[in-house]
Design brief:
The protein is an all-alpha fold. 72% of the residues lie in helices and 0% in strands. Helix 3 crosses helix 6 and helix 6 packs antiparallel against helix 15. Keywords: Membrane, Transmembrane, Transmembrane helix.
Length: 469
């Protein structure tokens, strides 16, 4: 569930043909995207997400089958929405939005995108810190912790954040190439962790494996109970900003055919299936330990610390894998947050906007809540940004039937398309209110919000365009 993290992706989305369609000579085959997505989605976030499913009391059927279906829906979204539109227009998300929304409104999107990137990067700094802290016998953050738990934690997070920020600001090309080499190591580490965990759990048959989760249980303190539909919808929309939110237009605009969208299955089933389940197995081992049982007997939630979990399974290799996984996710995420901020303050150099983004991410990393509540944060991330993708999707497929002008902001020379703002604000406000007032999980209302935003955009556009003529 990471952001893009290879040199190939940097070539694809890092500044080439920002304001023009990609020429035929620069198009790439499906093979270019296969390895990219496989590596992208087996990263630092996976070490947190797998265990967090167990804290939500999920059952075996709900987890294994729910992830199977939810990840398939994500692949279909990439294939038939993102890739389909990308190969027709061959424009970046930002330029496509600018044509529809106007420059001023896109500035607001960039700000939200940049800040959310920083918080996600902060969660990955937290993940790496749990590995770095092992030799120092550092107290690990608990599942319910929101603030720093000691000076050792603060020092380690600040040091990791400083290093990652400086590398992101000065050497992204080098880091991207290194990430290509690191991705296979991380995937191997997940496989090794899963195998070792199965051995530690005395799993000798599929029934033994299935019984690890059994019928599920009560969620840990501070967590909500996950059912089958929680797993399906959360796994579908955890990357909602990328597929139905159209962020990966910037990637698939280089694809020769829309069928390249199928390559996202490599990421979904290597990372969002195998890696999540492997990480969950690590936590299942820990939950049988005297330390975890002591927490549970006191009515407390045992900590979810990826570093110790991986170290318990595969030793020093586990520590290295967690550090690399957190780093290879946080570093490009900070870099892209810097690019989003630079779109707002273009006179500031890339170096300094990236340092600003890294500083925000490091501050966020000090607070374990972003990592410990990653399931909820990622649901919010997708809920906020995905409806902007509905604007692009509904205009692309329905502008003729709705009788509206395509790319209206560009055609009418306006910098702020009110139809877009009203559509997003109403859909976001209505369903966020429903979520809060009636305690509805955000992933349950992401699709309704997305659909309503698209429909309202067509309605408001038709009214405002007719009024302007």
């Amino acid at each position: 569930m990471s952001q893009l993290n290879t040199d190939e992706i940097e070539d694809i989305a890092g500044g080439e043909f920002e304001r023009q369609a990609v020429p035929e000579s620069k198009l790439k085959s499906w093979k270019s995207f296969l390895g990219m997505y496989a590596g992208e989605h087996a990263a630092g976030t996976e070490f947190m997400i797998g265990p967090l499913f167990l804290t939500a009391g999920v059952s075996a059927f709900d987890l294994i089958v729910g992830l199977l279906i939810g990840n398939l829906l994500a692949v279909l979204s990439w294939r038939f929405l993102t890739a389909e539109i990308a190969v027709k227009n061959r424009l970046t998300l930002y330029y496509q939005l600018e044509k529809i929304c106007g420059k001023k409104l896109v500035t607001g999107y960039n700000l939200a995108n940049g800040i959310l990137f920083c918080f996600l990067a902060g969660a990955m700094i937290t993940v790496s810190a749990t590995a770095v802290g092992i030799p120092f016998n550092m107290e690990m953050p608990r599942l319910t912790d929101t603030t720093p738990n000691g000076i050792t934690w603060v020092i380690i997070v600040i040091l990791i954040g400083a290093v990652i920020s400086l590398i992101a600001a000065k050497g992204y090309d080098t880091v991207s190439k290194a990430a290509n080499w690191m991705s296979p190591i991380i995937v191997i580490a997940f496989i090794a962790c899963g195998i070792v965990a199965l051995t530690q759990l005395n799993v000798n048959s599929f029934n033994d494996f299935w019984n690890i989760w059994g019928e599920g249980g009560d969620p840990f303190p501070g967590q909500i109970k996950y059912t089958f539909w929680h797993v399906v919808l959360w796994s579908w929309f955890c990357n909602g900003a990328m597929h139905i939110g159209m962020s990966d237009l910037s990637v698939f605009r280089f694809a020769k055919k829309a069928s390249s969208g199928w390559t996202t299955a490599a990421g979904m089933y290597v990372g969002h299936y195998m890696a999540w389940i492997a990480a969950a197995l690590l936590y299942a081992v820990y939950l049988k330990s005297p330390e975890a049982l002591a927490f549970l007997s006191n009515g407390e939630a045992p900590p979810v610390a990826p570093g110790p979990l991986a170290y318990n399974a595969i030793g020093i290799f586990g520590i290295i894998a967690v550090i690399l996984a957190g780093w290879t996710t946080a570093n490009p995420t900070i870099y892209r947050a810097g690019l989003a901020f630079q779109a707002i303050i273009p006179k500031v150099s890339t170096f300094w906007v990236t340092i600003i983004a890294g500083s925000i991410a490091t501050i966020a990393g000090l607070f374990p809540a972003f990592a410990m509540q990653l399931l909820g944060f990622v649901a919010l991330y997708g809920f906020i940004l995905a409806p902007f993708g509905a604007i692009i999707v509904f205009e692309h497929f329905f502008y003729e039937k709705a009788g509206i002008i395509k790319n209206y902001a560009e055609v009418a020379h306006i910098k702020f398309n009110k139809a877009v703002l009203f559509a997003w604000a109403i859909s976001f406000g209505l369903f966020y209110f429903i979520s809060i007032e009636f305690d509805v999980f955000l992933s349950f209302v992401t699709l309704p919000s997305w659909l309503l935003c698209g429909v309202l955009f067509l309605v408001f556009s038709k009214y405002m365009q007719r009024k302007a003529t």
